[in-house]
UniProtKB/TrEMBL annotation, chain A:
This is Type 2 DNA topoisomerase 6 subunit B. GO terms for biological process: DNA replication; DNA topological change. Residues 387-408 are annotated as: Disordered. Keywords: ATP-binding, Coiled coil, DNA-binding, Isomerase, Nucleotide-binding, Topoisomerase. PANTHER family: DNA TOPOISOMERASE 6 SUBUNIT B (PTHR48444:SF1). The gene is top6B. Its EC number is 5.6.2.2. ATP binds at residues 57, 88, 109-110, 119-126, 651. Residues 388-404 have a biased composition (Acidic residues). Residues 661-688 form a coiled coil. Residues 42-163 form the Histidine kinase/HSP90-like ATPase domain. InterPro entries: HATPase_C_sf, HATPase_dom, Ribosomal_Su5_D2-typ_SF, Ribsml_uS5_D2-typ_fold_subgr, Top6b_C, TopoVI_B, TopoVI_B_transducer. The lineage of its organism: Archaea, Methanobacteriati, Methanobacteriota, Stenosarchaea group, Halobacteria.
From TrEMBL, chain B:
This is Type 2 DNA topoisomerase 6 subunit A. SUPFAM superfamilies: DNA topoisomerase IV, alpha subunit. HAMAP family: Top6A. Its cofactor is Mg(2+).
Length: 820, 361
């Protein structure tokens, strides 16, 4: 998160100047300087990036129009250059829209939209256009046929690199066999060295967009490479949401403040942000007041033994109201004041107002504004002791500290708080010195209400601490200072002043920064998630099924979570076995908002997460127990968000955000658990088959041998064999504290089992069994009936490590295979 | 004891058991006592430790179990043929011989496997491996002392006096000591000695002559033949038996297997163990009393001592006291550390004093 210091706005003149000079760099120069960030740092990569940006755009355009995408990609060699053609069956594009979509760097409606979209920043396709123009000198050639029109329109577009303005140089009618759609043709300096990345991108796009039909032709392919559709279901339409208060940054906030129709900050918050109602807005505004105005320090009223008297002070300040009313007024104020432990000047003013109304009702005497103000001043002097007769004006700064001025009347209150906030080991003299130093500093605050912001309070406490350290050789470390600040701040009161109006906040960077901090400092409900369109576990699996001929597939979609102000959803899929090559590490497919990520695999959060998971536990080989697992598997991870955090503008790698990493891990583990149970089942099938093979060979040999030794004819062993072959198996799986006992009945009759598991720690969440505690060992017992050919799962949870010992009754032992 | 034809019949009976189980449509199995420390019990009547009631089943239900029983069937055939032909072989020969069997699954993977199987067969049939004509690789140890005996060898019977007819090495105990007949003797007691060096010292100093002792060399964990012969000295010649070893936990186990029987061959305890055998030293108390040169106990020694405290065979007042004393002083000493008092100390002082204390002489 960016943090803003109040000093930022002060030198605006210089910033303006800098911005001015920046604008003088041509767009071509800007591109040249930043092309590595944009994904165009080499000819090989430029080609892949251009295809990627154009295909992403085409998919978004078709989906937004509710059309099943049909995308054609063609790469041909043209002399020293490569020509890239991308066609879609989208809604086409009008002449007016054209420059906006293809022409201007950093333009794009998505830039301000909070919605899950492939592009997100609108930098991509225009960068491709610019790249082609800069390397080949050729314009972008665009053909568009909006739905229902009989002709298509052909445009040639170039970008004026001095002004960053697109120009349409050719505009003519043409014919096109697609009923509707857009075709873009770019010529560029490039090479095919990144062919495998190109293929990966297209193949992975097909995996993650099972509703799209994609065709690729390039010089290295003898046949066009076609990816057919696996579903006719379009991804769910995404809702655009208003921004979440935790997800905006200062610049955006100021823009919103400038553009809003609301007059008050409260209205602005409720109108422009998601998840903000009246109550939340009030909370934000309280926070905003604290930051903008500061809080008022509160002081305890004089006690009986003090020589300060609130009632007398108020009575003195009131004139011409008659004795009865004056007494009622002054006693009323003094009484209410005495009921408070501490109070601030604003609270005192409220009390005075309240008492004035009551007394006016009772006596018919009106206490007007001036009288009330005088009364507040007098009472406040009596409470704080500041400005009282004979007390002398508060000495300022250095003189008072170095001299022998009388003690400030604030000291006892401050002392109590400081003493309370510091450890008992602090020397009392140091605590007193600190209290005195603080009291002197509070006295010299502007006005008599003791208003101070938290930042200023921190500075003030630090200053007092360093003074005490210097003069009294007693240290107040960082923790002690924080405690003192917290103690003072928590007893200070939020002021009742109205917050500044929206236009004032918009015009003042400091106020806007205060508001932003207030928004971030308030607890606010997480944003809604209907702005996201996950692929869904079902289709993640369908996508893998379509492109990978495997033995097993699994997928998982997590519930939406929030990072900053942006909701996100993670999905994971795994394909295993079959035609997937068994040598080397597994293949990792990475997707962000349905866009495959092909470069910078090593820098990606998804890769980091896969490396930290212990894959041996899930049945995959992992040399050394960490790092990329090996084996015939493909793992795909999809992160969908209104704002996927990337490591750079080229959007190749997802940044290491802990909240997102956690969800990636959970999604992958969810899918991996299914893989594990598949592999376990496969292994136990294999073991059973092996056992049957071996026993089917050994037992007849043994029968032969014993008949030889005993001299009797060969015995009939079919009965014995049949018993062994039709068996009942019990397998244990322990995963993250969850214990699963799986009973499989392979015999041809129903089995009534009696299973007892002796556990060394207390089991919880036991699936319909009974638990008996026997001296620190728990006997968990089930009596399941398992039908022929059926299986049953018995589960419970244990906390941490546990030992198990299982025994099985109710079935003949020779029929039983226990692997638990 | 069983005769050769009895032994053969027992083996064939076991094979017939398997046959009958097959014929009844059951999966063949063989029940054995569980061979662990927790399943040995003190037999009041014989005073030795034998297997308790817990049993384990070797069943052909699992791949490993089936392989074991197949091997058992092949081994039964081999042993029966060997007895028929009145020949014998060593355990190691059995292991190599299995290579010639026409079934790969029946071949042994290691010598431990074939040794264990022979022990299983001993237990199930109640026949000792000597009666199967199976010999261990190592020969039994040696005896020196005033005893005349007759041994049946396959070159005819030989009469031997274990002092007069033998060299400095003594009389070599045959693999099957039941082929020995005791003739006459002047022996007063039997002294079993752990190490070869100490045995040689006793013989060189003429201890056997001076005290009419039968000195039996154990040579580490004693072979079955050595233990069997020691038992026969006790039972047939009515001689007291004392065991002289190093003063460390491993040596106490040597004494334990002489006196109480070993866990592995607890099925033969009644035939091999000499419960009357007593421990002469080196006792932990001796380390203190004679101020013997010692080494500190290693962690493994401490663990072994603690495990002995839990071993039912060592749960007597005497052993608990000695073991706890040793844990307390944290020291162990070898037999030969007695040489620190001179070469004759052991024969002139230590042993006579100890034997006197124990009431043997």
């Amino acid at each position: 998160m960016t943090s803003f210091q109040s000093s930022l706005g002060e030198d605006e003149g210089i910033a303006e100047e800098l911005a001015e000079s920046q604008r003088e760099i041509s767009i071509a120069e800007f591109f040249e300087k930043n092309k590595h960030m944009l994904g165009f740092d080499s000819g090989a990569r430029g080609l892949v990036t251009a295809v990627k940006e154009a295909v992403d755009n085409a998919l978004d355009a078709t989906e937004e129009a509710g059309i099943l995408p049909d995308i054609y990609v063609e790469i041909t060699e043209v002399g020293d250059y490569y020509r890239v053609v991308i066609e879609d069956n989208g809604p086409g594009i009008t002449k007016e829209q054209l420059p906006k979509v293809f022409g201007k760097l950093l333009y794009g409606s998505r830039f301000h939209k909070r919605e899950q979209n492939r592009g997100q920043q609108g930098i991509g396709i225009s960068a491709a256009v610019l790249y082609s123009q800069l390397t080949s000198g050729q314009p972008a050639r665009i053909t568009s046929r909006p739905k229902g029109q009989s002709d298509a329109q052909y445009f040639e577009l170039i970008i004026d690199t001095d002004t960053n303005e697109p120009e349409i140089s050719v505009d003519e009618t043409t014919s096109w066999d697609r009923p509707h759609g857009t075709r873009i043709e770019l010529e560029m300096e490039a090479n095919m060295r990144a062919r495998s990345q190109l293929h990966d991108y297209v193949k992975h796009t097909a995996v993650v967009n099972p509703h799209a039909r994609i065709e690729l032709r390039e010089p290295g392919l003898e046949e066009p490479w076609k990816f057919e559709r696996a579903t006719d279901e379009l991804p769910a339409e995404t809702e655009e949401i208003r921004p979440h208060p935790h997800g905006v940054e200062l610049g955006a906030l100021i823009k919103m403040l400038e553009a809003t129709e609301s007059y008050s900050v409260s209205g602005f918050l409720q109108e422009e942000f998601t998840r903000v109602g009246k109550k939340t807005a009030d909370n934000v505004i309280d926070e905003f007041r604290d930051r903008h105005y500061g809080r008022e320090l509160a002081w305890s009223p004089p006690r009986a033994h003090d020589d300060r008297d609130v009632a007398a002070a108020v009575a003195d300040a009131v004139a011409n109201k008659g004795e009865a009313a004056t007494t009622a007024f002054s006693e009323g104020i003094a009484g209410t004041v005495a009921n408070n432990d501490r109070l601030s000047r604003s609270e005192l003013a409220e009390i005075v107002d309240g008492v004035a109304e009551t007394v006016a009702d009772d006596t018919g005497k009106t206490f007007g504004g001036t009288v009330r103000e005088n009364a507040v001043d007098a009472a406040w002097r009596a409470i704080t002791g500041i400005g009282e007769d004979g007390d002398g004006a508060a000495g300022d700064g250095e003189d008072a500290e170095n001299g022998d001025a009388t003690e400030s009347p604030l000291v006892p209150d401050v002392y109590a708080l400081v003493d309370d906030a510091t450890s008992t080991r602090k020397d009392d003299a140091a605590v007193r010195a600190m209290a005195e130093a603080l009291a002197r500093r509070f006295e010299s605050l502007d006005g008599d209400a003791f208003r101070i912001t938290r930042d200023d309070l921190e500075r003030l406490v630090a200053d007092a601490a360093s003074f005490v350290a210097e003069q009294h050789d007693a240290t107040f470390g960082e923790t002690a200072r924080e405690n003192v600040v917290e103690s003072l701040w928590s007893r200070a009161r939020t002021v009742p002043d109205d917050p500044p109006k929206v236009r004032d906040v918009a015009g003042d960077r400091d106020s806007a920064a205060d508001l932003l901090e207030a928004m971030r400092g308030t607890d606010i409900l997480a944003p809604p998630t209907d702005c996201l369109a996950p692929i869904t576990a079902e289709l993640v699996e369908a996508g893998l099924r379509k492109e990978y001929d495997a033995d097993f597939y699994a997928a998982a979609t997590r519930d939406a979570e929030v990072h900053g102000g942006d909701p996100f959803i993670v999905e994971a899929g795994i394909a295993y076995g079959g035609e997937i090559p068994a040598e080397g590490s597994v293949e990792l497919l990475r997707f962000a908002n349905r866009v495959p990520l092909v470069y910078q695999r090593g820098a990606c959060a998804t890769t980091d997460v896969i490396r930290t998971i212990g894959w041996r536990n899930y049945g995959l080989d992992q040399p050394g127990g960490s790092g990329m697992p090996n084996g015939p598997a493909v793992i795909s991870i999809h992160v969908a968000s209104t704002n996927v955090p990337f490591t750079s503008e080229s959007k190749d790698a997802i940044a290491n955000v802990p909240a997102i990493e956690d969800e990636i891990e959970l999604a992958v583990r969810e899918a991996a658990r299914e893989l594990k149970s598949y592999l376990n089942k496969r292994r136990s099938m294999q073991q059973r088959r092996e056992k049957q093979d071996v026993l089917g060979r050994i037992l007849p040999e043994m029968a032969d041998k014993v008949s030889e030794v005993t001299g009797r004819p060969r015995p009939d062993i079919d009965g014995a064999l049949a018993r062994i072959m039709n068996n009942v198996s019990l397998e244990r799986e322990v995963d993250d504290g969850t214990v699963r006992l799986v009973v499989e009945n392979h015999s041809d009759v129903n089995e009534r089992l009696e299973i007892t598991d002796i556990v060394s720690t207390e089991p919880t969440d036991v699936s319909d069994g009974t638990v008996v505690d026997m001296d620190g060992e728990w006997f968990v017992q089930w009596k399941p009936e398992v039908a022929s050919g059926d299986e049953r799962e018995l589960t419970y949870s244990v906390d941490g490590e546990a030992d198990f010992e299982v025994s099985v009754g109710g079935v003949e032992t020779e029929k039983l295979t226990v692997n638990a | 004891m069983t005769t050769e034809s009895d032994a053969r019949d027992e083996l064939i009976d076991l094979a017939a058991d398997f046959y009958d189980q097959f014929a009844a449509g059951r999966i063949p199995e063989m029940e054995l006592p569980t061979r662990t420390k927790s399943n040995i019990e003190y037999d009041e009547e014989s005073g030795v430790w034998t297997y308790g009631d817990r049993t384990s089943v070797r069943s052909a239900n699992s791949v490993n179990g089936a392989r074991k029983l197949l091997k058992a069937a092949f081994t039964i055939e081999f042993l029966a043929d060997q007895l028929d032909e009145d020949r014998s072989s060593t355990l190691r020969e059995l292991y190599y011989l299995s290579e010639s069997w026409d079934n790969d699954e029946a071949q042994f993977n290691s010598q431990d496997e074939s040794n264990d199987l022979v022990e299983d067969l001993e237990i199930v049939t109640g026949v000792t491996r000597e009666d199967f004509h199976m010999r261990p690789e190592e020969s039994g140890a040696k005896v020196m002392g005033p005893l005349r005996l007759r041994e049946q060898t396959n070159r005819g019977d030989r009469e031997i006096h274990c002092q007069l007819d033998v060299g400095q090495g003594g009389y070599q105990i045959p693999n099957n000591p039941d082929t020995i007949e005791f003739l006459d003797n002047d022996a007063e007691f039997v002294l079993c000695v752990e190490t070869g060096g100490m045995r040689d010292r006793l013989v060189e100093n003429g201890f056997d002559e001076a005290h009419d002792a039968l000195i039996v060399h154990l040579g580490g964990q004693p072979a079955r033949a050595t233990r069997r012969l020691t038992k026969r000295f006790r039972d047939e010649l009515d001689l007291p038996v004392v065991v002289f070893t190093d003063g460390d936990p491993w040596s106490y186990r040597i004494y334990g297997s002489v006196a109480y029987g070993s866990i592995k061959s607890a099925h033969l305890s009644k035939y091999l163990a000499t419960p009357e055998a007593r421990f002469i030293g080196i006792q932990p108390a001796d380390i203190v009393e004679y101020d013997l040169p010692s080494d500190p106990l290693a962690d493994s020694d401490v663990n072994a001592l603690e495990s002995e405290l839990e071993d039912p065979r060592f749960q007597t007042d005497y052993w608990e006291e000695q073991i706890e004393l040793q844990l307390d002083i944290g020291k162990k000493s070898e037999q030969q550390s007695l040489a620190s008092r001179g070469l004759d100390f052991v024969t002139d002082t230590y042993l006579p004093e100890r034997l006197d204390e124990m009431g043997v002489i």
